[in-house]
Amino acid sequence: MTIFLQVILDGLMNGMLYALVAVGLSLIWGVMDVINFGHGEFLMIAMYVSYWLGFIFHIDPLFSWLASGAFVFFLAALTYQLIIKHTVGKPPLSSLLATFGLAMVLKNICLNRFSPNFRLLSDTVLGGKVLHMGDVIVSMPQLITALFSLAVMAMVYVIIHRTRLGWTIQATAMDKEAAELMGINTEKIYLLVFGMGGACVGIAGGLMPSYLAVHPEVGTLFGLIAFVIVAMGGFGSIPGALLAALLIGLVEALSGFYIAPVFKYVAVFGLYLVVVMIRPKGFFGW
Amino acid sequence: MKTKRFEKKDLIWFALIIGFALLPVIPGVFDSSFTQHVFILILLFACMSQSWNIIGGYCGQVSFGHSVFFGIGAYGAGMAVVTYGLPPWPGALVGAAAAALVAVAISWPVFRLSGHYFAIATFAMVEIFNRLFMVWYWVGGALGLDYPFVDEGIKNFIWFENKIPYYYGALVLFIFIFGTVRWLERNRLGYYLKAVREGQKTAESLGVNSTLVKLLAMGISAFLAGLCGAFFVQYNYRVDPAMVMSLDMSMKFVLITILGGTGTFFGPLLGAMVLIPLQEYSRAYLGSLGSGVDLIIFGLLIVLVIIKQPRGIMGILSDLTKKRPASNEGTRRR
C-alpha cells in the first residue's frame, strides 16, 4: 500500500510539471493554432540557463527560474518575430515543420557548445532533501517544482480569464479579424502569447536542474509528452491540460512500476490514442 | 476528353532519369565510393519521400508515422532472411506487405482525426512502435538485427566490393515507385485523393468514400515505404529501432517532400537531390568543426525553406518559368 501511494504521489508530482510544460504549448495552440515543435528545446535551454547560473554564479534554481523564464520569454518572442510570424496563414503544418528545424538548430548548438554530457546541480538548497509523510517519501525539489507549476498555471488561468489582457487574447483566439476591427493589435497579442508560452516552459525548466540532469536531448521527450497532453486535454484549454497532464503522470508512474519501465511511454502514448479515438478533440476541446 | 498518358514534359524528365542512370558508367564522375553512396541515398530518400507524398502530399493527410512502415519493411525483410533464410526478394515483399497491413490496421481508427490531432496521433504511433521494437527480443531488441554475410550476387542482393550494383537496385526501386505514383496521379484514385485533400466534406457529398480512399492510399504508400525499408536493410547490413523507427526518420520523409514541393510528382526527387548531398557532405566535411554543425545548417535550411517558399523547389521553378496570376490553377498546387 505504501508503495502504491508512493507511486501515485510521484506520478502526480511529475504530472504537475508536465502540466506547466504543456500549458505554454496549449496557450500558443489555442490562440494562434500554431504548434511549436521547439517547445521541448525551450525547456532544455531553460535548464541550461538555470544550470549555468547555478554552476558559475552559485544561484540556486529556487531563484534562477526567474532568469530562465525571462530568457525563454525573449527567445520565444524572437522565434515569433523570425519564424512564426511568417508561417501564420500558410498551410497548417508549416509552423510545425519550421519549428522542427528550429528545434534541430537549438539542440545541436547546445550539443556543439556544451557536449552531450549529463549535468546536474549537486549542491542546491533543496537538493537531496526529502520529506517523510508516514512511510511515503517526498523529494523536496520535485515537490516545490510541482507546487510552483500549479501556481504558475493558476496565474496563467487568471490572466486569461480575469484580466483585460486575457479578454483581448480570448477575442484574438476566437476571431482574429473581428478582434482587429475592435482595435486589438493582434500581432502584438500573438507575440505576447508566444512569449508567455515560452515563459511557462522556461520557469518549469529553471526549477528542474536540481533533480533532473541537463543534456541536449532532454527536451525532446518532454516536448512530445506536452503535445500529447495538449491534444488530449483539448486545444487551448488550461483545465484540460492539467487533467490530461495528471492522468499522464499517473499512467506513466503506474505502468512504469507495475508493468516495466520500458513500457511507460507505450502506455502514455497508447492512452492518448485511446482518448482521442473516443473524443477526437480531447477532453475539453470544441 | 481523354488525358494523354505521356506528355512532352514527361519525356524530358524520363530522358533526364536515363541520363542519371548512365552516370555510373562515366568514369571519373562517379568513381569514389562515397559519391556512389550519396547517389544511392538520393534515390532511396527520393523513393521514401515519394511514398509519403501519396498520403501526405496528394491526399493532404500529413502523417509523421512513415518511419514505422519503413521500419517494418526493413525488419520484415531482414527477419525473412536472418531468421527464416529466405532469399531477399520474397523477403522484401514480405516486409512491404507487413508494412501495408500494419498501416491499414492502425490508420483505420486514426483517420477519424484531422489536422494537428492526426499529426500528433502519428507521432504517438512512432514512439509506441519504437519502444516496442526496443524490447521485442524476437527482432533483436535494442541491439537490432545484423545481416548475415552470405554469398554475394544478385540472388542474395549483396555485394561487398562495389556499390554500383546497389545503385542499379535503387534505380529499379526508383522507377517502380515513381512509376506507381505517376500511374496513381492519372488514375481515378489519384483524383479522389486530391478531392479529399481539397475538401473532405465536399468530396464526400459527391459520393467519394473518403475513408476507403484514404485507407487505400495509406496501404499503397506504406507498401512502397516498406519496399524502401527492405532495400535499406540490404544496403546497410543491419537495422535497429533508433535508426529506422524514429521521429527524425519520419521527419526526413516529410521535409524532403516539403523542400521539393508537396503533392508534386518530381518534388521528392528534387528535395532529395538537395538535402541528401547537403547532409552527407556537411557531415563529412564539417564534422571536424565539432558535433552537430551539419545538423545546425540542415535545420536552418529547413526553417528558411518553410518560411520563404512553402511550395518548395517546385514552387521556385514554377515561379521562374511562368508568371501566372495568383488565381490560376498552377499556383494552387501545394
UniProtKB/TrEMBL annotation, chain A:
Membrane topology qualifier: Multi-pass membrane protein
GO cellular component, one term: plasma membrane
Family from the record: Belongs to the binding-protein-dependent transport system permease family. LivHM subfamily.
Transport listed as a keyword: yes
GO molecular function ontology, one term from the record: transmembrane transporter activity
Name by which UniProt lists this protein: LivH3
Protein's GO biological process: amino acid transport
Organism expressing this protein natively: Desulforapulum autotrophicum (strain ATCC 43914 / DSM 3382 / VKM B-1955 / HRM2)
InterPro entries per UniProt: ABC_transp_permease (IPR001851), BCAA_transport_permease (IPR052157)
Cell compartment(s), UniProt: Cell membrane
Membrane-spanning residues: 15-35, 42-59, 65-84, 136-160, 189-212, 224-250, 257-278
Keywords for this protein: Amino-acid transport, Cell membrane, Membrane, Transmembrane, Transmembrane helix, Transport
TrEMBL record, chain B:
Localization terms from the record: Cell membrane
Keywords: Cell membrane, Membrane, Transmembrane, Transmembrane helix
Taxonomic superkingdom: Bacteria
InterPro entries xref list: ABC_transp_permease, LivM-like
Residues of the signal peptide: none
Main location per the UniProt record: membrane
Topology versus the membrane: Multi-pass membrane protein
Segments traversing the membrane: 12-30, 36-55, 67-86, 92-111, 118-139, 166-184, 215-233, 253-278, 285-307
GO cellular component terms listed in the entry, alphabetical order: plasma membrane
UniProt keyword annotation of Transport present: no
Keyword field contains Cell membrane: yes
GO molecular function (one): branched-chain amino acid transmembrane transporter activity
Name of this protein: LivM3
Species: Desulforapulum autotrophicum (strain ATCC 43914 / DSM 3382 / VKM B-1955 / HRM2) (Desulfobacterium autotrophicum)
Gene expressing this chain: livM3
